[in-house]
Please model this.
Amino acid sequence: MASHEPGPPIDSPPTTPILPLEPDQPKSTLSFLENASDISSGKNEQSFDFKQALNDLMKQRVRQDEGIKDRQLGVMFEDLRVVGAGSRTSLQPTVGSPFQPSTLLAKLRGIRHPSIRDILSGFEGVVTPGEMLLVLGRPGAGCSTFLKTLANQRGEYHAVEGQIFYDSFTSEEIYDSFRGDITYCPEDDIHFPTLTVDQTLSFAVRNRTPATRLPNQTRDDYVEDTTTMFMKVLGLYRSKHTLVGNAQIQGVSGGERKRISIAETLGSAGSLGAWDNSTRGLDSSTALEFVSALRSLTDAKRTTTIVSLYQAGEPLYELFDKVCVIAEGKMAYFGPAKSAKDYFIGMGFEPQNRQTTPDFLVAVTDPHGRKIRSGYESSVPRTAEELASYFMASDLGRQNHEATERRREQWVGNHEHKQAYLASVAAEHGNTSSVYMTSILQQVKAVMKRSVQIIIGDKFEFFIRLASQVFQAIIMGTVFLQIPSDTSAFFSREGVMFFSLFFSAITSVAEVPSLFFQRPIVHRHQKAALYYPFIQSLAHTMVDIPVALIVQLVFAVILYFLVGLQRSASQFFIFYLFVFTMSQTMKSFFRAIATCSKTRPSALALSGIFILLISLYGGYTVPRPTAPKGLKWIMWLNPLWWSFGGLVVNEFHTLNGVCSTLVPQGFGYENASLANQVCATVGSQPGQLLVDGNLYIGLTFDVWYSQLWRNFAVLCAFYIGFLVIFLIATEFNILSTVDSAVVLFKQGSCAVDGNSKVFDEERAEKTDLELHSNSKSLSGAAHPSTSVDPEKVQDLFTWQHVQYDIPIEGGMKRLLDDVTGFVSPGKLTALMGESGAGKTTLLNVLAQRAGIGLITGERFFGGQPLPIDFQAQTGYCQQLDTHLPEATVREALLFSANLRQPQSVPLAEKEAYVDKCLQMCGLEEYADAIVGSLEVQYRKRTTIAVELAAKPKLLLFLDEPTSGLDSQSAWAIVNVLRELADHGQAILCTIHQPSAELFQVFDRLLLLRKGGQTVYFGDIGENSSTMLNYFERNGAPRCKSDDNPAEYMLDVIGAGATAVSTTDWYDVWKHSPEAAQLQEHINDLHQQGRSHQRQLSDQYSVFATSWLHQFVMLTHRNFQAYWRNPTYIRAKFVLNIAGGLLVGFTFFRANDSLQGTQNKLFSVFLSLVLCVPLVHQIMAVYIDIRTVYEIRERPTRMYHWTALVISQLVAELPWNMTSSAMFFFCWYWTVGFPASRAGYTLLVLSVAFPIYYTTLGHGIASMAPTAPVASIYFTTLVIFMLIFDGVIQPFFELNWWKWMYRASPFTYIIQGLLGQAVGGQAVICSSTELVSVNPPMGQTCSEYMDPFIKFAGGYLTNPGAAEGCQYCPYKTTDEYMYSRFNITYSDHWRNLGIIFAFAAFNMIAVFWFTYFMRIRSVSVFTSLKQKLSRGILQVNRKS
Model:
């Protein structure tokens, strides 16, 4: 076996100090590649030689006497022990958990005596620069923990004990000063989906660009060359301008996304790299190319490379110098890779027939997967502890210990090495004071550029934000269109000022969900030392400023001039300045809340409380002079109050309004002098018809013009303060967002107890049952109790001449090109090809799951068109393991069985079948585990089990079911598939990196190359003979006896990122006799199928069960999910209780005066504002559940979408009604409403209103693609409704917008609540509300005022007086409410009915928008265009 010894790069002396060339020396090249133009233009991508490029780079950088020295970093560890949190945290919390005494006691015990467990223990070894270490072990052994620990990522563990030295540095020194020199590539691929491949990689390279580069090479040259090189070596260059994408946004393929993660980590330019199962999702050729690139990089730059692989072929294994074998958290072996196999054979084990070395080493750690040599049964080590002890006592163990001690003596405390390393860092970083390679300014520029690219990549959201601002400005401007300057419009002017600011505040809540999405990405980049986390926040803010300047300017111009505010340049720009600054302040505020919160629901709940506080104490609904004395201090902490004060004094400073409220006035008072009249407007002066705006504002709001710039300064201080909190929280709170690795089990599960050993993939020990679970999977085919008998179906699924084109910029792109084949019952067909060849695309097309694009060709079942229930009767295991995260594994399987098996099958039979599926997939010990907490391999098993539980009759599609699994688990899964095929199931399965034994399990092969072109379709044959004969007969080199045929065929056709083939195997296939025989065979199959009647399915519907059954199952699942989401439910109750107390005590014991009645009005109005944060929460959860449906459940025709919509409403309503009732009890009597009228109010607030805002939230979410966009939609609509409810702008002043007053649902909610609560009561004016009027000489108050009172209403408190008549404008609350707000007491039952009618309208909207925006994804015009194009293509083909 070949082994690569660490050594210097070719033609490169290792000890020569390398310094940069002098500036006056001639420029050699701007690129480190021989032909820069080729790599820049993308020519010859397939023939790009990464190793040669690296050698060229080193030759250019190396000089005998001067240059910069590449620093190196090895790692030495001794007595390494990693401790994780214990089983006390492994129960899934529920809504009822806090009320269980046992939960409280367990938490107290956990605080006093935290339960811990060993994940790793007893590790020692050394990996030196230039060496590659392969880490092997079964899932759960601790491979990821080992890699993370050596990569110095310890945050998620309870403790890391023992000694770890990175040459002369401690782990603390590395983290504080050189964190970027150690890179870690995680198993999951998380990126910004709206960035392109090139943008994603360029960003990583730019932030790790050294200060010292090649002579005359600029920073941009380095970024372009390095990015292009990695894109070429990983086969990403042709996709450089393609979006990365994710489950919701179409982008690159799953394999390409994995390569992006690899390239991003390579671009970080670390001295020590840890790669956690980074070949998952890659075909064997691409995986070999990737590891070969690591080998070349390790040799050329003498880096230290540590890789964990689950399915490693022999060629990959031969590239490594050392191997570490982990058995249940113990070190079973650490030493030379070339000696490992012989070591374990000498111990008493032997490999299975044709078993690769990595598979053999992993199998040794599996009690049910290893094979013991004859004669060693009694002496061979069996447990993990025995394996570790045996190794420590062996010669290799002693050599490893001695090597570790030598490394310690040579490097630990080596001052010279430390100084040399610091010098290299100083040359590369430009300084040694920062762990980051680039300066803060450079980081800000790079992250700002990325933020702009994200905005450009998601133009839709930006235009929605702009359209929202324009829409609101137009609506508000036309509502208050050219308002008069007299005192009758003073209240309206205040409303314009307030809502122009409040709209900015409420729209800023949309920042919360978007920040939670980017958290894991920022966290990963922080650990890679790409940039300070606060830089992301700072750059996000800076990029938002010019965008907000434009958006707010458009808003201000439209609103200001439509309303007709004071026409002076200074006042307009002050208005614009306050509105813009307020919007930025509130964005920073809500971003700070999101950053300080651990979960999205808690952040939204906190945001809702602050929205209520801001609106309550913004100075408009509760002016400062009338605010409760004990709560006035809140205004000082409210930026909206300072902004509102600034705007009103700016507007009213130059306004002197004519009094429109003279008392008395009208008929009979035409000749009354001002001495016998009084202006009822605050700030009026005796004998004066004009009211000074300055005095009015000063007396009403206690704010004066001299305080204008003070208010602006305070607002700026708030902005800076919130921004600082935002930046600091981003920098230091980022770690709190990391998900725990502990697997959660449902309450009451027997799998969890105080000493449970079932946790995550990083548990130190496993129970015997757990170890046995895989063995049962392995032996399932032979075990009669686990056999699965699918219903026998003899018809074949065929397809011919299938082509698939998708629209791209500038034309169409063909993903599948004339693909023909079939799948037979009882046969296991493998679909293979390199990453990006179109395997998943073909599965999607065949399974009727393809999205946009044009599909041509024929698909038949039994020679006839596909049945209507084809999707319901086929299973499809996706690459992405998408499940409802709150369900347990058993519940997920039973849900699938209940909805996809015929309804006539008894429940007991379904449950028994689910148990079989759990057993077959090795999930028995995890049956009660919460799916969302499972690690990768168990989520993958769950995905497969869910499809098996459906008992698909016609066909089973599987997309890479073994990706991310170790060889034993992969073998178990394929054995399950083999068993299903043997029982008559037709299976088509894509598979990556199969071993020779695994490949032999399949019957047929469909092999694709890039472009979706067929290279081979046919039988594999015994020992792959049929397939091998085909390739060898057509000019391929002979396959060696010890070669893996699955890897051989990919090498032959030129699969891989940079591989090439001189033979056009697509052309060979088209002209081969096998292709002609295939076409003849399919024609015969079609002829036979049409000659007999097709087997009928049990139902003639698209779905397997009735709508009512679907609804019951979905409702049960949703209730269960809500119960297990206590954060979300708790947020509802906290928001309602806190809101009720806040509003209640703000308007505490409001009396029957005019101000008291108005306070009751605003208490009702502000109660409605509380629905804003509640709906934000509802929409986020609705979209999360809908995403599971759209990605996985809808394509399987599991249930009708209407059942999902109604079940979500039914599951949501009880919680909303109960929490709203809590609001009522905290609010109603606190404000002082009469107890005798509480029933109606309770009915509206706890039944009608929750139904309304729940259906409203679902309606908005149903037409929005993401939660942030839904937030923008809802904020725009709710402000629209609040404006027209008659409170901000009274009904009689709405002019031509009165029709919208009647169309606003909030109108009827306020009318119903207020009319019922305060209607029919007498108004008792307070002394400050009474208007004092002096009658003419000789007249009493009654004689002078009676004509006016008959016309205008009101009453006198001293009708017989001759002077100082005390006049109250209103006698009853009915007069007050009708004249000001058009509210009538008698309409309360009518209003209740209208509220329910609006809720019904919302439900209709939910169905409408869901269908036309989520279900019917293709417009009518697009559909007609596709049909026309398809017809033309068919005509051309026939001609």
The first helix runs from residue 36 to 41. The mean pLDDT is 83.
